[in-house]
Amino acid sequence: MLILKTDPLNHKFNIAIFASGTGTNARKIIEHFINHNSVKIALVVSNKADAGVLQIAKEFRIPSLIIEKETFFRGNAYLNELHAAQINFIVLAGFLWKIPSALIAAYPNKIINIHPALLPKYGGKGMYGHFVHEAVIDSKEKESGITIHYVDDKYDHGNIIFQTTCPVLPNDTPDDLANRIHVLEHAHYPKIIEKCLSE
Length: 199
What we know:
This protein has helices at residues 24-33, 52-59, 69-74, 79-84, 101-106, 130-138, 174-198; strands at 13-18, 39-46, 64-66, 89-92, 111-115, 143-150, 160-167. With 199 residues, the protein is of the alpha/beta class.
């Protein structure tokens, strides 16, 4: 259920974080903006009622919204709820559903995503989490990294905002590589979000 709070500081940017999982990136983003003068994490959206990110939202007293597939893809994509929360920027942080065209049209160049590889390689439908790291290791890549990009109507396809790399070591497991990627995500995603908002 969505419970809105008034915003006495009239923040310039109200961000909605969309996440499907534990929310480690969401936590870093929330912590980064917790006392920001012009940016507020105003809503956490998840497609899973048991997602760990919802507990993080509760911990920080951020309103949350659980969405279901029919309304998201064939209804109004929850635009009424997003507008009611005065959302003007959307951050995907481990959100596994494709973003519907209605939402992209309502937020042009205002939705960004982070991908745990160097796009355009290792992107597309089904390429998330360990599937990405396994593919990178199986292809004997020497490096991997993160890609932060704007979201369009294709998986992992929008204009790239930022990339940075890390080595893939000879004996890496997907978990090893994932841990290295997480360090990059946590270090860079909040800062790149802030930079996007300032441009």
